[in-house]
Amino acid sequence: MRPNLTPEEYINGILLQDRNILSKAITLIESNREEDEKLAVSILEACIKQNKSSKRIAVTGIPGAGKSTFINAWGKDLLENGKTVAILAIDPSSSISKGSILADKTRMDDLAGHENCFIRPTASSNNLGGVAKTTRETMLLCEAFGFDFILIETVGVGQSETIVKNMTDLFLLLLLPNTGDDLQGIKRGIMEMADIILINKSEDDNIMASKRAATQIKQVLHLFSTSEKDWTTPVLNVSALHKKGLSDLQQQVDSYFLKMETTGFIGFNRKQQDNYWFEETIQQALLQTFSRDKNIQTVKKELLKKLENKEITPINAAKLLVQKFLKYK
Ligand code: GDP
Fold this sequence. Notes:
Elements: H1 7-15, H2 19-30, H3 34-48, E1 55-60, H4 67-80, E2 85-90, H5 94-97, E3 117-119, H6 128-145, E4 149-154, H7 159-165, E5 170-175, H8 188-193, E6 196-199, H9 207-223, E7 235-237, H10 246-263, H11 265-292, H12 294-308, H13 314-328
Bound molecules: guanosine-5'-diphosphate.
C-alpha cells in the first residue's frame, strides 16, 4: 500500500512551496487509478481557488529549432533576475517512445538542480489527450506553488500546438534562419498563433539569412488579419547557443504581459480556455463511454457489415448507432 498524504497535506505542502509534495501531487495527477484521480481533483480544486497567477508561456518549433537550448538560456536569465521558473512539456511522441523530451536533455544543464527551477518531464504512458490533461493540471499545481514563469515546451507536430495554445497566455514560436526561403512549409495556422517569433541560430554566417527571414516573415504576418488583442507579433533574431538577443525578447515579453493584463485579455483568454477544456473533456468522456461499451461495439459491427453490403447509408448507420446508445444509457 502506498501511503498517501491527506488532501490538506498536499495542498498545504504546495502552498508552502514544498517541491517534494509538488512532485507527489503531479504523480497523482498522472495516475490512472480511480482513488488517485479523486484525490487529484480535490487538490486541483483547492489550487485554482488560490488566485495566483504565473506567466504561462508556450515554446514551440520544429525539432532542432533549438527549443531546449533556448529554454536553458532564457531560463538562466530569468533565474539570475530572481524569478522562479517551472518547465513542463507536451510530447506527443512520448506514448510511442515511452521517453520524454525533457528527461534526457543535457541542454538544460544551466537550470537542472537550481533551487528556483522545477523541470518536470512528460508522463510517458498517455495518449496526446491524456498528456494534454496532465500537463495542464501540472501547470495549475505549479501556479498555486507560485512560480513566476511556467514554460511549456512542445514538439512541433500538428495537434500539440493547438493544445498548448489553449493552456498558455503567450505563444513563442522558434524558427530557423532559412525559414524565409521556405515560408510555404510553415503552416499558416501556426504562424497566426504566435505572439512572438524568434529566429534562432542568428549568429556568424547566419546573420544575413536570419535578417532576411525576419523581413519576409514580417511581410507575411502583415497579411494576416489583426488579432482580437491588438498586438503586432514581433520577429526577433536570437542565438540561444550564444545567449544573444535575449534582452530584446525579455522586453517584448514584459510589454506583452503589461498590455494584456491591462486590457484584461489574459483573464478573458483564460476563461475561454476553461470553456475549451470543458467542451473537449465532454467530447472525450462521451467518446470513451461509447467506445468502451461492449453492446454498442457489437451493434456497430453489424452496421458495418450492412454498410459494406450497401444496405444502409453511412449517415443512417451512425444515427441508428447513436440512438441505440442513448436509448439504453
Ligand atoms: P529542440 O529539438 O528544438 O529542443 O532543439 P535543441 O535545443 O535540442 O537544439 C538542436 C541543435 O541545435 C543542438 O545541436 C543545439 O546545440 C543547436 N542549437 C540550438 N540553438 C542554437 C543556436 O542559437 N545556434 C547554433 N549554432 N546552434 C544552436
